[in-house]
Write a structure and sequence with these properties.
single chain, 1248 residues, Rossmann fold, nine-stranded mixed beta sheet, 45 helices, 48% helix, globular, HAD_sf
């Protein structure tokens, strides 16, 4: 009997193969233990301890099962089934997270292998039995990652990449983007051009297999299109024949699409209010909350921006997914929130059921069902209409029970009071660990749904802006789903938790810290809040590295491989909105009436209307304010009959016990005040007018105008915009402000409250009623002139720091850690570090352009800042830079960075063209290079045409062998600064992809340790690299090989000579040679030392002395000259090991022979392109000519007539005339770009 047969007899049912519609078969802990014990008995592991708690038994069993499964021996399949039994239990029951965590820990590094085997079984259960194990698995891994700070969800995606794509709707999203891009291209191109652009619908265009003759014929009829700077591309000329062979095709550049950057705003609360009228119609109105006021200005700038929020449309248990499926309203999985208003999503909206919490009756009959569907579709229509005239509003739909716990429970019952440092208001149920864990899971589930919706609706170029304490885990989850997105977070409330929050509630507090660090940007209202956050990072995440940049006032924190920038952005208001109302004559008249109602017709001359307005929330200090107000009249009885406090406390959250109790206590104190203090002189006077109803904005502004003093005294508040509204509307009013308000910190930092002048009265201790009453009294007796002067200063500051500045400052990429900042370049090390940072930026640019992903703003800002930093360090009006080397007294390095500056300028220009929507962006960029060509625009065009003609004649290359420095890139002042520009990387990669089969860069430079791989920006897979003249080869990270003919003794000899030269260069007279040109480099098989730079700044006598010294060192260790050969070039002295076979030096030609032999390539077949710029590249050409003299094409970048004659003579020997000479690398790149463009156009024509 086989193992499988034994297994099928012993276990009643296999995991994930049970019909879950039968209640009797639902697994539980008891059946899981029974099944696991049976598995253990089969694999002869009965000795595993199965006593104790369920979790302990499972832990012991899992370690054994994983061990047996990993062995891949007799019982491996049985052990795997045991693991599936435990997994099924975890996916069936939400409360089995500890068991799931144990399973993940037991799998360890073998999780990817496990998921590859388990995923098909899990999915089959969903398809066969209607289970939802896939969703449960995704969430359980997300919860594990959140709680542990790990990234196990990525391992699941590594096992099955399609799972990630299907979850995030990648293919559908890509189609939508391409459709959108195509529509825009149609509007910008002629009919013929647009038709040609349609083939751009995919990044990888399929090669069309046709007869060679047809393809050749098409190629023969294509002409190159290069214009001078004075010419323009005729994009709309459709007067000619459609079949005109000279038609220029719209290439769309080297990238497929460009879509502009959007802001994706994500918040718990929506920017609108929804109301169902008696007629059954839905009414949607723009909201007026603080978040809307803050974000609406930036969102309204572009109708393509999007706002994701929960509109109260959720799925509740009474409308289960099963019932809804039967009704034909939704599919098996919970409804998603794909984009409202985008072509991709409009088709799917009919599948989404919106369930409104306020309208939650069961549907009883057919007519009710139809009415419900009609209502939902009516709501869809309202939202669609809203989206047509505004930014796109997308509802995020979650389970209703989860939402109630997430919002009404843990967010406002724990996180809100904890962040305000008001622990007495934390709901007591969170003292129970089980309740805390359950509610935390609900919080994670809602954040998970927000994250999925945000990723589904976002593109790589978008900025996703998450708001407030409800969604602090969204960034962490989004990074696991798609690490390419830029996600920022702003905390609108204070961050002032106590230590107890991190000890008593660690299950959620530590993940919150880690989660916030997963955002690329985090904004706080005040420096106080940011400092508090950093202090807790230092204490509870001690491995985090923290850096501060005083120039931008930002902290950058590096933790677990991610970087996060922390900034301070005091939020403000849209001043114009309030001023427009405040200047309205109707409102001014209304304010006079309002003042008369509150103060009476003939109040005392020194009376004051003191106004306070806020939500009826315990964080606002209303209770403390009322107690101080009561004490005020006791301490200052002369103010009785004069001063009136108008308190508006808008009731909210009465369903929460802590809020209801607090509100009732305040109302009781209010009654006590009015019952205690009366005025016989002014019998109609009341010390307090207390209202719990909200004020419409016009009434609110009218009251601001009517007041004499604003009273804003929260215990803790993120910013408190009321104070800003007050002073914008009424700059003559006085102000009493508590230090608990973020705005008070902002005012203090701005110098508005100092020893010299206090523009407002400050309350430091809210619980000191004496201090509180004194502050009010000082404001009350202040003269109108002084009060008005203080109010004016506050008004001017607020007017200069409005909401536009807040949002633009936060969204500005310049303060992010992703941006290279302006810096002082003083040392050689500063220069090298800056160039390596630009290398990283350029690599990202190349990768994004090649993938058709638009470029983020921070890339161009970084390149501009890098260029400006270098120029600022140069001598005025030059590109000469003097840098310190090892110490203050050491010889400074003097470099000419003209090449680096030019390449920065070209990359910046390249980004401008790449970001444009012009279908000719590549041609226009190549044209722009004409202006900097030393021989002028006409010579540039002629040289590019010659190269392109050569490539055109070849049609396609089987092999492309090229040098790098001097050929594909201009020489730099030092090799460490020789970073490949982004434009060069893109053009080379596309040429390799379109025009050649096997591409190799063969260089004399080493591979690493400041070698060719360190300064290259081309992604892997486009080129093979042959370093050290082709002795050291890199194909990919797992495929490398070297020349094996070098003996260990020879390598040791080379090491000795290298050490001797290094010691010599430490002497002050030789030290400059460590940084000019390529410096001292140890290669595999030879050593190079630069004795001159490309600008010939070293005196000839010094060069000769250095060469003599180096020859002496070599002669000392190889007196007979049998093992070492020295070669001198214009810029370098090169020390080669002689080959063991011929006694000659190893050349690039030998390197190509080694490469072809190792790879099994036949160089005698196919067309070969060879490019070089120096004598060391000639052996490459000679080797290729020997193998295949009829099919070799070569381009040489040189103005040296002697070298050009050598190349021409060598080709003539082999009867080859397929060569071209160009004056600079930019010409060669231009020819490569034109060849690539034409290849794309031909493939399109063949496809049509």
């Amino acid at each position: 009997m086989t193992e499988t047969e034994v297994l099928s007899k012993i276990t009643i049912e296999h995991p994930f193969q049970k019909n879950r519609k039968k209640d009797s078969n639902v697994t539980n802990e008891e059946t899981t233990i029974t099944d696991v014990k049976r598995i253990l008995s089969i694999i002869n592991e009965d000795e595993v301890k199965c006593d104790g708690s369920f979790e302990k038994m499972i832990k012991n069993s899992l370690m054994t099962l994983v061990s047996v499964w990993r062995e891949k021996k007799t019982h491996s399949e049985v052990a795997f089934e045991g693991l599936l039994i435990v997994l099924e239990l975890c996916l069936q029951n939400n409360g089995q997270q500890p068991v799931f965590s144990t399973l993940i820990e037991a799998l360890g590094y073998h999780s990817v292998q496990f998921w590859k085997s388990a995923i098909p079984i899990v999915f089959n259960s969903d398809l066969t039995y209607g289970t939802k194990y896939r969703d449960a698995l995704l969430f359980n891994l997300t919860l594990f990652d959140v709680n542990s700070g790990r990234s196990k969800l990525k391992e699941l995606f590594a096992a099955d990449p399609y799972l990630q794509k299907s979850l995030l709707g990648v293919n559908a999203k890509r189609f939508g983007e391409q459709y959108h891009s195509l529509q825009r291209r149609r509007s910008k191109s002629s009919l013929l051009q647009s038709e040609e652009s349609m083939s751009e619908l995919s990044e990888d265009e399929t090669d069309i297999v046709v007869k060679c003759s047809k393809e050749k014929q098409l190629r023969r009829h294509r002409s190159i299109h290069i214009t001078s700077s004075s010419e323009s591309l005729d994009k709309h000329d459709d007067s000619g024949d459609d079949n005109n062979v000279n038609t220029t095709f719209s290439t769309g550049g080297l990238t497929s699409q460009y879509l502009k950057k959007r802001v994706i705003n994500v918040s718990n609360a929506p920017p609108v209010s929804l109301k169902k009228e008696k007629t059954g119609e839905w009414e949607i109105k723009q909201g007026s909350g603080g978040l809307v006021s803050c974000v609406d200005p930036v969102m309204s700038k572009d109708h393509e921006n999007m706002w994701l929020a929960n509109l109260g449309m959720n799925i509740n248990k009474r409308n289960s997914s099963c019932d809804l499926t039967n009704k034909g309203l939704i599919v098996d999985n919970p409804p998603t929130t794909n984009t409202l208003g985008l072509p991709l999503i409009r088709q799917q909206l009919a599948d989404v059921l919106f369930h409104v919490l306020a309208d939650d009756e069961e549907v009883e009959d057919v007519s009710d069902k139809n009415k419900g569907v009609k209502d939902d579709l009516s709501l869809l229509g309202v939202l669609n209409n809203y989206n047509k005239g505004n930014y796109k509003l997308n509802p995020v739909i979650v389970q209703e029970d989860d939402y109630n716990v997430y919002y009404g429970g843990i967010s406002n019952g724990l996180i809100w009071p904890a962040f305000h440092n008001l622990e007495e208001y934390i709901v007591k149920i969170y003292d129970d660990p089980l309740t805390l864990n359950d509610h935390w899971c609900a919080y994670v589930r809602v954040n998970y749904q927000f994250a999925i919706d945000a990723v589904r609706n976002s593109r790589p170029q978008d900025f996703i802006w998450i708001h407030d304490y409800h969604l602090m885990l969204t960034g962490m989850i989004m990074q696991n789903l798609d690490p390419n997105l830029e996600v920022g977070f702003f905390l609108h409330i204070p961050f002032q938790p106590s230590d107890e929050f991190f000890t008593k509630y660690s299950i959620c507090s530590l993940p919150v810290l880690r989660g916030l660090l997963k955002f690329s940007k985090v904004g706080f209202q005040t420096h106080r809040d940011r400092e508090s956050f950093i202090d807790y990072i230092k204490k509870y995440l001690p491995t985090a590295q923290i850096f501060f940049d005083p120039k931008t006032d930002t902290h950058t924190i590096t933790h677990e491989g991610t970087n996060s920038s922390l900034g301070v952005f005091p939020v403000s208001i849209k001043n114009e909105d309030f001023l427009k109302i405040a200047k309205d004559s109707r409102i001014i008249e209304k304010s006079l009436k309002q003042r008369e109602i509150v103060m009476g017709k003939n109040p005392p001359k020194d009376s004051n209307l003191i106004f306070s307005v806020e939500r009826f929330d315990y964080t606002k200090g209303i209770k403390e304010k009322l107690l101080a107000w009561m004490h005020y009249f006791k301490k200052y009885p002369e103010r009785i009959g004069k001063d009136v406090l108008l308190q508006v406390a808008v009731t909210n959250r009465r369903s929460v016990d802590t809020y209801r109790i607090y509100q009732d206590e305040c109302l009781e104190i209010a009654e006590q005040i009015n019952g205690t203090y009366k005025s016989s002189e002014y019998p109609n006077w009341k010390p307090l007018i207390f209202s719990t109803d909200g004020l419409p904005r016009e009434s609110l502004v009218a009251t601001y105008l009517a007041m004499d003093i604003g009273l804003v005294t929260p215990k803790k508040d993120g910013m408190n915009l009321v104070v800003k509204e007050m002073l914008v509307c009424n700059p003559h009013a006085g102000l009493v402000l508590s230090t608990g308000a973020g705005s008070e910190i902002q005012f203090t930092n701005a110098g508005l409250y100092s020893n010299e002048e206090q523009t407002y009265k400050r309350v430091v201790n809210m619980f000191d009623i004496d201090e509180f009453a004194d502050a009010i009294y000082k404001a009350a007796i202040e003269s109108k002139e002084v009060r008005s002067a203080h109010g004016k200063k506050l008004n001017e500051f607020i007017m200069a720091n409005d909401i536009e500045r807040w949002s633009s400052s936060f969204l500005d990429p310049a303060w992010s850690h992703q941006v290279i900042k302006l810096s002082d370049i003083k040392t050689l090390d500063d220069f090298y570090k800056l160039m390596m940072r630009t290398r990283d930026i350029r690599r990202q640019i190349v990768e994004r352009v090649l993938k058709g992903i638009p470029i983020s703003d921070h890339f161009s800002i970084s390149l501009i800042n890098a260029k400006d930093s270098l120029l600022h360090a140069c001598k005025p009006g030059t590109t000469q830079i003097i840098l310190q080397t090892d110490g203050e007294e050491s010889t400074p390095a003097q470099l000419d960075i003209a090449t680096e500056v030019k390449e920065f300028e070209r990359d910046i220009s390249f980004l401008e063209f790449a970001l444009s929507d012009d279908v000719y962006n590549v041609e226009l960029f190549i044209d722009s290079l004409q202006s900097s060509h030393s021989g002028g625009a006409e010579q540039f065009r002629m040289e590019v045409s010659a190269v392109a003609d050569l490539f055109y004649d070849a049609d396609h290359f089987e092999y492309f062998f090229t040098d790098r420095d001097g050929t594909l890139k201009s020489y730099s002042c030092t090799y460490q600064g020789s970073v490949q520009p982004a434009y060069s990387g893109v053009i080379q990669a596309q040429f390799a992809r379109r025009c050649a089969q096997t591409c190799c860069i063969v260089t004399t430079s080493p591979m690493l340790q400041i070698g060719v791989l360190d300064v290259s920006t081309i992604p892997e897979g486009y080129y093979y690299f042959g370093a050290s003249v082709g002795r050291d080869w890199y194909l990919d990270p797992s495929n490398k090989f070297r020349d094996t003919t070098i003996s260990p003794d020879d390598l040791h000899l080379l090491d000795i000579i290298f050490d001797a030269i290094s010691a010599m260069l430490r002497e002050s007279k030789w030290k400059r040679f460590t940084w000019i040109g390529s410096g001292l480099q140890k290669h595999y098989g030879h050593i190079t030392l630069a004795h001159q730079d490309v600008f010939s700044t070293v005196e000839n006598e010094q060069v000769l002395l250095l060469d003599k010294e180096i020859k002496n060192i070599v002669r000392e260790h190889d007196p007979s000259g049998e093992r070492i050969m020295i070669k001198l070039t214009e810029t370098d002295i090169k020390i080669f090991l002689k080959t063991s076979t011929s006694g000659e030096i190893f050349t690039k030609g030998d390197g190509l022979t080694l490469f072809a032999k190792k790879m099994g390539f036949d160089l005698s077949k196919g067309h070969i392109l060879v490019c070089g710029d120096s004598e060391s590249d000639i052996p490459m050409l000679e080797t290729c000519l020997k193998y295949n003299h009829d099919n070799v094409y070569t381009v040489w970048v040189s103005t040296n007539e002697t070298l050009k004659e050598k190349v021409a003579y060598l080709c003539k020997i082999y009867n080859n005339d397929r060569y071209a000479f160009v004056s600079c690398p930019e010409v060669l790149l231009g020819g490569m770009a034109q060849a690539t463009i034409r290849e794309i156009n031909i493939n399109r024509s063949l496809a049509h």
